[in-house]
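Question (not urgent): is this output format expected?
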Amino acid sequence: MKKILTLTIALVFASTLLAQETDSIRSLTIIDCIDLALQNNIELKNSEIEIEKAKATKKEAFTAYLPTISAQAVGFNAMNPMLSFGIEDIPNALVRQTLYNLYTQFGPMLGLKKSYSFAQDGVILNAMALEPIYAGGRIYHGNKLARLGIEAATYQAKIKEDEICLQTECLYWQIVSLEEKIVTLDLLDRLLDTLDKDLAGAIDAGLALPTDQFKVTLKQNESQLNRKKLEDGITLLKMALGQYIGVDWQTLTLSDTLSVETPPVSYYQNPASAVALRNESQLLGLSLKAEKLKKKMTLGEALPSLMLGGSANYHTVLDNAKPNAMVFAILQVPITDWHKTAYQLKKHNLDLEIAENTRRDFMEKMEMQTNQAWFNLEQSWLRINMAQTALDDAEANYKMVSDYYEAGLVALSDLLEAQTMLKNSRDELSDSRIDYRLNLVKYKQLTQM
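Got this back:
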């Protein structure tokens, strides 16, 4: 009874471990992988942080519209009074003597001193507010420039997102392609195993030579080596994909397979229109707007500025000190900066010309890039059709050669060659379909589909 109980516990434990292992294996579609890549990619997270930084910059620029308020408190205690004055300090001797006579006669009676000192210690409190009324347009254009920064950061994040999606698709479909080739090797291995068994019987019956079986063995060894290369390639690609999407590659399986492709004509977009919609084009347009705003801000530095302000203060420096307040206006007109501003504006004009030239150059290159992507898509579609035709011919050829071999009309080398042609044709079809799918992804990204 004890042994039965122990065996039951062991079986339950093993079943639990098997269930956990099964649950840990993740079967992902291409959509799942793209979603995970977008969630976990560090560069995309940094792009989102850049957007938040741009928003903070915009809020910072808006504060220039608000009044600036400052407060100041000063306390001091000097070794000697900062202001001291008495009868002896009068330089004119006649006046000094006259005042001295008057002081001697009436000063003590009136409670006057012969000398006075001020500001040896005290406290000064001051608060001031300044509100910009006009600053040559610099505040307005600075806020517009900050808004452009948010747009630029957003477009850069979208470009990074497209790059991540493309890289994920490339890794995913490369793995699918290698797995398809392993399926082809499985078919070839079954054919070779059957042929090897048939040859063993034929050799025993004296109908075939041992050299024929040696040729089959060489083909089996070659197939085994190819399988090892494919398995290693799948492992490396899964490691890369797992790191890219944030998943343990050892638990990663792909559920999507190659499906029937749609002809490229249904995806065609006018290159010029497609380029105008691209995120890169929007960024180039923003760079041109930014240069224009920078020029206007430079011009604003040479224009008059007007500020209104108010202040309140209190001090204990004088014995009869009282709180005070005032309002004021500040009009500042730059006089000597026009010459410097003229050269700065000339530099901005040159920067604008460079930005326009760069934008036009990149637009032309992007249009060429779109055309090249379309040509690649058409070529990969043609490659699929040619590969499918070649596979049909290879299958028909293999069947015919196999029949001839069984009838003793062709040599073993012809049959092995037909098998090799069949394998190469299946691999070529798989490669061409993967190539078409990746070219289609690139073309869709370039045309914003």
